[in-house]
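Hello, quick one for you while I still have it in my head. A protein chain has come my way and I'm curious about its shape. Can you walk me through what the C-alpha coordinates say about the fold? No rush at all, and the record is pasted right below.
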Amino acid sequence: MIASTEQIKKLRELTGAGVLDAKRTLEQYNGDFDKALAVLKEKGLKAAEKKAERVARQGIIEAYIHAGGKIGVLVEVNCETDFVAATNEFKQLAHDLALQIAASKPRYVSVNDIPAAELEAQKKIYADAARAEGKPEELVERIAQGKIDAALNEIVLLRQPFIRDESLTVHDLIQSVIAKVGENIVVRRFARFELGE
Protein backbone atom coordinates (compact mmCIF):
# COMPACT_ATOMS: atom_id res chain seq x y z
CA MET A 1 0.00 0.00 0.00
CA ILE A 2 1.36 3.41 -0.97
CA ALA A 3 0.77 6.16 1.55
CA SER A 4 -0.85 9.34 0.23
CA THR A 5 0.88 12.69 0.52
CA GLU A 6 -2.05 14.07 2.51
CA GLN A 7 -1.81 11.23 5.04
CA ILE A 8 1.94 11.73 5.44
CA LYS A 9 1.52 15.48 5.87
CA LYS A 10 -1.23 15.04 8.46
CA LEU A 11 0.83 12.46 10.39
CA ARG A 12 3.81 14.82 10.43
CA GLU A 13 1.67 17.68 11.75
CA LEU A 14 0.17 15.54 14.51
CA THR A 15 3.35 13.77 15.63
CA GLY A 16 6.36 15.78 14.49
CA ALA A 17 7.72 12.65 12.77
CA GLY A 18 9.92 12.91 9.70
CA VAL A 19 8.58 12.34 6.18
CA LEU A 20 10.22 8.94 5.75
CA ASP A 21 9.20 7.79 9.21
CA ALA A 22 5.57 8.76 8.58
CA LYS A 23 5.60 7.09 5.14
CA ARG A 24 7.20 3.86 6.41
CA THR A 25 4.80 3.60 9.33
CA LEU A 26 1.77 4.11 7.08
CA GLU A 27 3.06 1.48 4.67
CA GLN A 28 3.85 -0.91 7.52
CA TYR A 29 0.21 -0.71 8.66
CA ASN A 30 -1.25 -0.83 5.14
CA GLY A 31 -2.48 2.75 5.17
CA ASP A 32 -4.29 2.45 8.54
CA PHE A 33 -3.94 6.09 9.59
CA ASP A 34 -5.14 5.63 13.18
CA LYS A 35 -2.75 2.74 13.83
CA ALA A 36 0.18 4.67 12.31
CA LEU A 37 -0.73 7.73 14.39
CA ALA A 38 -0.80 5.69 17.62
CA VAL A 39 2.56 4.07 16.84
CA LEU A 40 4.26 7.37 15.97
CA LYS A 41 2.85 9.09 19.07
CA GLU A 42 4.15 6.27 21.26
CA LYS A 43 7.54 6.49 19.57
CA GLY A 44 7.59 10.26 20.12
CA LEU A 45 6.69 9.91 23.82
CA LYS A 46 9.51 7.42 24.35
CA ALA A 47 11.92 9.87 22.72
CA ALA A 48 10.56 12.67 24.95
CA GLU A 49 11.22 10.60 28.07
CA LYS A 50 14.88 10.22 27.04
CA LYS A 51 15.19 14.00 26.71
CA ALA A 52 13.85 14.70 30.23
CA GLU A 53 17.32 14.73 31.78
CA ARG A 54 18.72 17.31 29.37
CA VAL A 55 19.23 20.85 30.69
CA ALA A 56 16.63 23.41 29.64
CA ARG A 57 17.79 27.01 30.23
CA GLN A 58 16.37 28.85 27.22
CA GLY A 59 12.71 29.61 26.69
CA ILE A 60 10.16 32.35 27.24
CA ILE A 61 8.06 33.98 29.89
CA GLU A 62 4.46 34.09 28.71
CA ALA A 63 2.06 36.71 30.07
CA TYR A 64 -1.71 36.39 29.86
CA ILE A 65 -4.40 38.78 31.08
CA HIS A 66 -8.00 37.55 31.25
CA ALA A 67 -11.47 38.77 32.18
CA GLY A 68 -10.96 42.46 31.48
CA GLY A 69 -7.83 42.69 33.57
CA LYS A 70 -9.16 40.74 36.55
CA ILE A 71 -6.87 37.68 36.19
CA GLY A 72 -3.22 37.68 35.15
CA VAL A 73 -0.67 34.90 34.67
CA LEU A 74 3.09 34.81 34.16
CA VAL A 75 4.63 31.44 33.34
CA GLU A 76 8.26 30.57 32.62
CA VAL A 77 8.64 27.71 30.14
CA ASN A 78 12.17 26.51 29.35
CA CYS A 79 13.69 24.53 26.50
CA GLU A 80 17.25 23.70 25.47
CA THR A 81 17.85 26.25 22.69
CA ASP A 82 16.68 29.70 21.67
CA PHE A 83 15.88 28.22 18.25
CA VAL A 84 13.12 26.04 19.72
CA ALA A 85 11.94 28.90 21.95
CA ALA A 86 11.18 30.85 18.77
CA THR A 87 9.06 28.09 17.17
CA ASN A 88 5.29 28.36 16.89
CA GLU A 89 4.82 25.02 18.68
CA PHE A 90 6.75 26.20 21.72
CA LYS A 91 5.05 29.61 21.82
CA GLN A 92 1.64 27.95 21.52
CA LEU A 93 2.49 25.60 24.38
CA ALA A 94 3.52 28.53 26.60
CA HIS A 95 0.28 30.34 25.74
CA ASP A 96 -1.82 27.23 26.39
CA LEU A 97 -0.10 26.79 29.77
CA ALA A 98 -0.89 30.39 30.70
CA LEU A 99 -4.55 29.82 29.77
CA GLN A 100 -4.56 26.61 31.81
CA ILE A 101 -3.19 28.40 34.87
CA ALA A 102 -5.70 31.25 34.52
CA ALA A 103 -8.65 28.84 34.21
CA SER A 104 -7.69 26.04 36.60
CA LYS A 105 -5.88 27.79 39.47
CA PRO A 106 -3.09 25.28 40.13
CA ARG A 107 -0.90 25.96 43.16
CA TYR A 108 2.17 23.93 42.19
CA VAL A 109 3.94 22.94 38.97
CA SER A 110 4.60 19.33 40.05
CA VAL A 111 4.02 17.04 43.03
CA ASN A 112 7.71 17.47 43.93
CA ASP A 113 7.04 21.16 44.67
CA ILE A 114 4.57 20.39 47.47
CA PRO A 115 6.08 20.43 50.97
CA ALA A 116 6.02 16.90 52.42
CA ALA A 117 4.55 18.22 55.70
CA GLU A 118 1.59 19.68 53.80
CA LEU A 119 0.90 16.35 52.06
CA GLU A 120 1.13 14.41 55.32
CA ALA A 121 -1.15 16.86 57.14
CA GLN A 122 -3.77 16.63 54.38
CA LYS A 123 -3.53 12.82 54.32
CA LYS A 124 -4.07 12.74 58.11
CA ILE A 125 -7.20 14.90 57.73
CA TYR A 126 -8.62 12.52 55.12
CA ALA A 127 -7.74 9.46 57.23
CA ASP A 128 -9.35 10.95 60.35
CA ALA A 129 -12.48 11.79 58.35
CA ALA A 130 -12.69 8.20 57.06
CA ARG A 131 -12.33 6.85 60.61
CA ALA A 132 -15.04 9.26 61.82
CA GLU A 133 -17.37 7.84 59.15
CA GLY A 134 -16.76 4.38 60.59
CA LYS A 135 -14.72 3.01 57.70
CA PRO A 136 -12.71 -0.16 58.47
CA GLU A 137 -9.09 0.55 59.40
CA GLU A 138 -7.77 -1.55 56.48
CA LEU A 139 -9.58 0.82 54.06
CA VAL A 140 -8.66 4.11 55.75
CA GLU A 141 -5.21 4.35 54.14
CA ARG A 142 -6.57 3.61 50.65
CA ILE A 143 -9.40 6.12 51.07
CA ALA A 144 -7.00 8.83 52.27
CA GLN A 145 -4.59 8.13 49.38
CA GLY A 146 -7.43 8.23 46.86
CA LYS A 147 -8.56 11.62 48.14
CA ILE A 148 -4.97 12.91 48.06
CA ASP A 149 -4.63 11.78 44.43
CA ALA A 150 -7.89 13.54 43.51
CA ALA A 151 -6.73 16.73 45.23
CA LEU A 152 -3.35 16.58 43.45
CA ASN A 153 -5.16 16.45 40.10
CA GLU A 154 -6.66 19.83 40.97
CA ILE A 155 -3.72 21.69 42.53
CA VAL A 156 -0.77 20.35 40.49
CA LEU A 157 -0.45 21.88 37.01
CA LEU A 158 1.17 18.85 35.36
CA ARG A 159 -1.58 16.52 36.63
CA GLN A 160 -4.53 18.67 35.59
CA PRO A 161 -6.67 17.70 32.59
CA PHE A 162 -5.77 20.05 29.72
CA ILE A 163 -8.60 22.58 29.28
CA ARG A 164 -8.67 22.28 25.48
CA ASP A 165 -8.64 18.46 25.42
CA GLU A 166 -9.52 16.75 28.70
CA SER A 167 -8.35 13.38 27.40
CA LEU A 168 -4.81 14.77 27.91
CA THR A 169 -3.12 15.92 31.09
CA VAL A 170 -0.89 18.99 30.95
CA HIS A 171 2.08 16.60 31.32
CA ASP A 172 0.88 14.66 28.24
CA LEU A 173 0.57 17.92 26.30
CA ILE A 174 4.13 18.91 27.15
CA GLN A 175 5.42 15.44 26.23
CA SER A 176 3.73 15.68 22.82
CA VAL A 177 5.43 19.03 22.14
CA ILE A 178 8.79 17.58 23.28
CA ALA A 179 8.28 14.80 20.72
CA LYS A 180 7.62 17.39 17.99
CA VAL A 181 10.44 19.85 18.72
CA GLY A 182 13.03 17.30 19.82
CA GLU A 183 14.11 19.09 23.01
CA ASN A 184 13.38 18.86 26.70
CA ILE A 185 10.74 21.33 27.91
CA VAL A 186 10.25 22.31 31.54
CA VAL A 187 7.67 24.52 33.22
CA ARG A 188 9.97 26.28 35.66
CA ARG A 189 7.48 28.43 37.61
CA PHE A 190 4.33 30.49 37.39
CA ALA A 191 2.44 33.23 39.19
CA ARG A 192 -1.32 33.72 39.02
CA PHE A 193 -2.96 36.95 40.12
CA GLU A 194 -6.67 37.48 40.63
CA LEU A 195 -8.09 40.87 41.55
CA GLY A 196 -9.16 40.92 45.19
CA GLU A 197 -7.41 37.68 46.19
Summary: The chain has three domains: 5-51, 58-109+156-194, 115-154. The domain at 5-51 is CATH 1.10.8 (Helicase, Ruva Protein; domain 3). The radius of gyration is 21 Å.
